[in-house]
Prior knowledge:
The complex is a heterodimer. Helix content of chain A is about 30%, strand content about 20%. Chain A contains 14 helices and 18 strands. Chain A is globular, with a radius of gyration of 21 Å. The mean pLDDT of chain A is about 95. Chain B has a single domain (about 5-165), classed as Aconitase, domain 4 (Alpha-Beta Barrel), CATH 3.20.19. The interface between A and B is large, with 49 and 40 residues.
Amino acid sequence: MTSMTITEKILARxxxxxxxxxxxxxxxxxxxxMMHDVSGPGAKVVLDEVAKEKGEIKIxxxxxxxxxxxxxxxxxxxQAAGNMETMEKMAKDWGITRYYRFGKGQxxxxxxxxxxxxxxxxxxxxxxxxxxxxxxxxxxxxAVGLGHTDLAYVLLNGKIWFRVPETILFKIDxxxxxxxxxxxxxxxxxxxxxxxxxNYKTMQFAGSTVTExxxxxxxxxxxxxxxxxxxxxxxxxxxxxxxxxDSRTQEKYTPVYGDSDCHYVETLNFxxxxxxxxxxxxxSPQNVCPVREVSNIEIDRAYIGSCxxxxxxxxxxxxxxxxxNKVKVRTEVLPAAQSIYKKAIDEGLISIFVDSGALxxxxxxxxxxxxxxxxxxxSEVCVSTTNRNFPGRMGHVESQTYLASPKTVxxxxxxxxxxxxxxxxxKM
Amino acid sequence: MITKFRGRVHxxxxxxxxxxxxPGKYLKEMDPLKLAQHALEGLDTEFVxxxxxxxxxxxxxxxxxxxxxxHAPIALRYSxxxxxxxxxxARIFYRNAVDGGHLIPIEITNETYEQIADGDEIEIDLExxxxxxITQETEYGIKAFPELIMKILEAGSLxxxxxxx
Lengths: 428, 165
Ligand code: SF4
């Protein structure tokens, strides 16, 4: 038998095969599925059509499905509210009990909930109706985003087709300097390979820099594998993975690892010790340069939010910089889940943000996708911990977003200009 | 399945992303005709005025990058677009186009992309794997579809393919 990568092994197991190779098309059984308030109502439209022909439909396994209200909550208008009513009906009709509702206990951004509450486990196939479903791959599973027709198909059949992807191995070694974060690393990678650099492929991250990272940081890497076009991002599980999961769930799982001699279509090496703060300029995540190259640019807004940049470690790093300082521009902080919000309160981070003058928002997608709660005006320039800066992403089509790490965004909020956290002391 | 299509070309750049195809603020909308009114709004506000049923988009590589929103191929479909021709698609957009039965995603070479001009009239032949440029009186090849994709396209969508099995 030929050796396989972790992604190939998971897909082989899920499709009942001993062996798969890149390029094979398989129907894989799905272990978990997710939908939110955009993809959920979309999937319902598709399933309602199916029901017209088949009569009443039943979804394959409600216990393997979870739903989150995150994009348009608290409801921005009656249309959004109507979609939440649709979600409520779906949960009831289909018997989905893992349903995260804003203002009702734990809630937040779907991808954050998936890992924060360990809803998905190493070795699994996890499909979600959102492109950043990739995020959960940091726990050693095949996590992949789908549109709502595919999602509806999964809900009905518990399986879906995949072309087995080639894997690119990103091997990053060396101790990461204090001023850098995983965001700087993934921006550097996307700057190098481009927004289609990993199209149809797997981005696997390994090396001592990754091993040393906390889970929250690893999640930033897999989250933005989407911005390089990857089918999935993945990191082989280790002690930190097991600790993360076992402290959150009793569920059993079987970790999967690639064979030591498995084939990667390409291996790209990076020196983690040489990382410096990076930024993606408008209007593409591949428009990457060191923060210091654009440090004269004045900003109107600073945004700390999203599944990429509002996990507890992101908030901790931002708070360290903001402590005792006042923000010069309008700054928003939206913790990515209610449990993170609570931790941020317990650790005193929220007080630091409020004392600095920032606004604290609810745990939702907020302005990340230009939906509501802080969208950008025509002439506004924003530095943001989110993952995309295409035209109109966060508001007006001419508004400008610079993507950066939570440290860089915090430093910039204080100076009113895009600022490398290393250069902060002289400017305060 | 009809395998020949004729229409006019709307030509765009590379990396046309889902945020410009249909901005995030419209994602609450489930009515495809309403989505179509905002198709490509972030890139070309004239598009919805000039597009005719059966037209094509010819674009640079990585078409449809960004989000998983199926609203993107739906908005294009209901605006009248039949097929998108590009050197490469972003993966979720490609899946959505095929599985949802919204658009025919056709892969062409970079040279073909360079040669086709905005406003050209072209005819796509899926059986012969060719594009005839009627305006320029030239012909180009297109990439054959993988077996499963062809079957889903023939059936009309992933669900229809399933019923046929
Ligand atoms: S926070 Fe932004 S990137 Fe993450 S799921 Fe929400 S809209 Fe998508």
